[in-house]
Amino acid sequence: MTPQEMEARIVRYGDLQPCRTAFIDAHTPGSDQKENFTIIGGGVSESVDQHVHITIPHGFNIGAAGQPPKCRNSLHDHRTAEAFFVLSGRWRFFWGRWGTAGEVVLEKGDIFNIPTGIFRGFENIGTDYGMIMAILGGDDAGGGVMWAPQVIEDAAAHGLVLAETGKLYDTKKGEALPEGVQPMPLMSDEELAKRPEPTTADVLPNHVARYWDMHALADRKPVLVIGENGLLRDKPGFEVGFLTRGSATTDLHRHDRPSVLMPVTGHWRVDWTGGSTVLAPGDTMSVPENLDHTAYPSMSGEAAMYHIVATDDPAGATWQG
């Protein structure tokens, strides 16, 4: 593969195209300044304005959320797994029917494999604009987002109506639901009662991995962070690995399916049969299946990178309570 062909599979941080109307809470005060990015796959955006950078199926989706301080993402759930790692900023994640069941604060490089089957939200509690990178299971990411009832009600009060088709309509722009199309129904009390409300103590040990802990563990060989035998044991339809300067190698290897490289710190040189490039934090690179490649730091200093590859496990719910 030539460098020009490979460049089409690299999304540079500076080239990311945000969507500010991606979800139902785009007009809700406190959530109306967030930006959504769909990097690989169709994502779960509810807006036709969402730009998709790479449409090649990988078995999972890669996205990102960018938010200024005090901006939050409203309580929602997905039908498949969702994992986040912090690229920049300081973030509070919260979960449960009302967002009060538990919470955790994540710093740069930390990763959270969010339990499925619970409503979750997050907010930037840092002092600067922050970015978190997201991994969603499945090529279709489960078919969309399920919102806590109060989020749908609040959105309607500020002009946004979500149709049962999953498409947003902005009444402030004079839009209305098409004839025969109903609003997205609210979850019933019976459905809500079935959802678990895990505490912080329930969630932290098996769903959160800290950057510096992983950095220490990956001093000689890469660490499997999310996977059947990972630090965070799960089978969400993808595996997430973590490598550092100490565990990087110039030896070439390949996968039988596309894989993704996402630096957190440092600059990384990626060599492959046919060329090479350098990735910086915030860049996302899709490596084709069966292509010999390797990645290693190209400059001195701290360096760490996440690596994602799909598995044959179904991208469904894995949280067992």
Topology, please?
Elements: H1 3-7, E1 10-11, E2 35-40, E3 52-54, E4 60-67, E5 72-78, E6 82-88, E7 91-95, E8 102-106, E9 111-114, E10 120-124, E11 130-137, E12 145-147, H2 149-157, E13 160-162, E14 168-170, H3 189-193, H4 200-207, E15 208-209, H5 211-217, E16 223-227, E17 232-233, E18 238-244, E19 259-265, E20 268-272, E21 275-279, E22 284-287, E23 293-297, E24 304-310
Parallel strand pairs: 2-3, 16-17
Antiparallel strand pairs: 1-22, 2-4, 4-11, 5-10, 5-12, 6-9, 6-11, 7-8, 7-10, 9-15, 13-14, 16-18, 18-24, 19-22, 19-24, 20-21, 20-23
Mind explaining what this structure looks like?
With 321 residues, the protein is mainly β. The protein has 2 domains: 3-208, Jelly Rolls, CATH 2.60.120.10; 209-310, Jelly Rolls, CATH 2.60.120.10. Helix content is 11%, strand content 37%. It contains 5 helices and 24 strands. The strands form 5 sheets. A 7-stranded mixed β-sheet has the order 1-22-19-24-18-16-17. Strands 3-2-4-11-6-9-15 form a 7-stranded mixed β-sheet. Strand 20 and strand 21 form a beta hairpin.
In short:
Helices cover 11% and strands 37% of the residues. With 321 residues, it is mainly beta.
The oligomerization state is: single chain
Number of domains: 2
* CATH top-level class of the largest domain: Mainly Beta
Show unreliable segments: none
Taking the sheet with the most strands, its summary is:
7 strands, mixed
CATH architecture label of the largest domain: Sandwich
- As laid out across the biggest beta sheet, the strand order is 1-22-19-24-18-16-17
Shape: globular
- Proportion in β-strands: 35-45%
Q: Strand-and-helix sequence, N→C?
A: HEEEEEEEEEEEEHEEHHEHEEEEEEEEE
Radius of gyration: 19 Å
Mean of all residue-level pLDDT scores: 93
- Named CATH topology of the largest domain: Jelly Rolls
Quickly count the helices: 5
From the helix content, strand content and strand pairing, which structural class follows? mainly beta
- What percentage of residues falls in helices of 4 or more residues? 10-25%
Give the tally of β-strands: 24
What distance lies between the first and last C-alpha atoms, to the nearest angstrom? 45 Å
Question: For this structure, what is the CATH homologous superfamily of the largest domain?
Answer: Jelly Rolls
